Amino acid sequence: MASSTAFSLASLSPVNTELSVTPIRTLSRTVCDLRLRNCRSKRNVIISASVSFPAQEVSPSQRRPDELAASIFSKVTQTDRGVTLTKEQHLQVAELTSELSKYCIDSPVTCPLIFGEWDVVYCSNPTSPGGGFRSGFGRLIFKTNEMIQVVEAPDIVRNKVSFSALGFLDGQVSLKGKLIVLDEKWIKVVFEPPQLKLGSAEFQFGGESEVQLEITYIDDKLRLGKGSRGSVFVFQRRNPTV
Fold first, then answer.
1. Is the model's pLDDT at 54 over the cut of 80?
2. Pfam families per the record (predicted)?
3. 150 or 58, which is more confident
């Protein structure tokens, strides 16, 4: 009997014990297909795993000034000017303001952008602006509505804190001061005795006071300052240029 021209493998069927003959070439192709599918499957798993890692946050030193400013505003907005922030969050703001200060112009006190109306949106020592009205006990009685600083050419500074007492009596504390340039970054403001308005009553109290402030950054929307005792202030322009 003539021999077969192709080698074959015999396999026993578990159902009817019939012999089936499968060419080696066909079996080899099937094995190769299975290996290829397995390889592709593994590669897909590797690719999926590689893109599943969370993106790392960009450090402040790698951000542009506008990005740093946006991050600062996002962290201090609706925090009662820093009162509700945790210690860790204050440190995050300090890191951002320190990094943004590196982009400050050489002589910010001579920059015309200093003039205008500014909202005080943050202070690292939240009780610093507003005095006793912003202390822990004071905040139980007085709710701060606005805290505004107006810098008028050539050398006038007006601070205004508006509040509601006990939730129904509106009031306001205002100060007028003279701005004195100390050097290219530092200014001093000598304030007259403050004016207090409570309901329909208005009177003057206390005496003169003065503060020193370093301007560490300024642009058309944001101004950063640092007090003589290290407190960091963030000011936001009320009517920024478009």
1. no
2. PAP_fibrillin (PF04755)
3. 150
The single residue listed with the structure tokens 């100060």 is 175
* Average pLDDT rounded to a whole number, residues 235-239: 95
By DSSP bridging, strand 209-218 and strand 222-227 are antiparallel
Averaged confidence pLDDT in the chain: 81
Q: Are strands 19-23 and 8-12 parallel, antiparallel or unpaired?
A: antiparallel
pLDDT at 55: 52
The structure's pTM equals 0.73
Summarize pLDDT for 223-235 with one digit per residue, the tens: 999 999 999 999 9
Quickly count: other Cβ atoms within 10 Å of residue 217's Cβ: 24
Q: Which residue's entry shows tokens 């701060």? A: 144
Three-state SS for the chain is CCCCCCCEEEEECCCCCCEEEEEHHHHHHHHHHHHHHHHHHHHHHHHHHHCCCCCCCCCHHHCCHHHHHHHHHHHHCCCCCCCCCCHHHHHHHHHHHHHHHCCCCCCHHHCHHHCEEEEEEEECCCCCCCHHHHCHHHHHHEEEEEEEEEEECCCEEEEEEEEEECCCEEEEEEEEEEEEECCCCEEEEEECCCEEEECCEEEECCCCEEEEEEEEEECCCEEEEEECCCCEEEEEECCCCC
Residue environment code for 129-138, b if the CB has 16+ CB neighbours within 10 A, otherwise e? bbeebbeeee
Model pLDDT for residues 86-105, shown as the tens digit of each residue: 999 999 999 999 999 999 99
Output the six-digit token pair for 68.
Answer: 């740093």
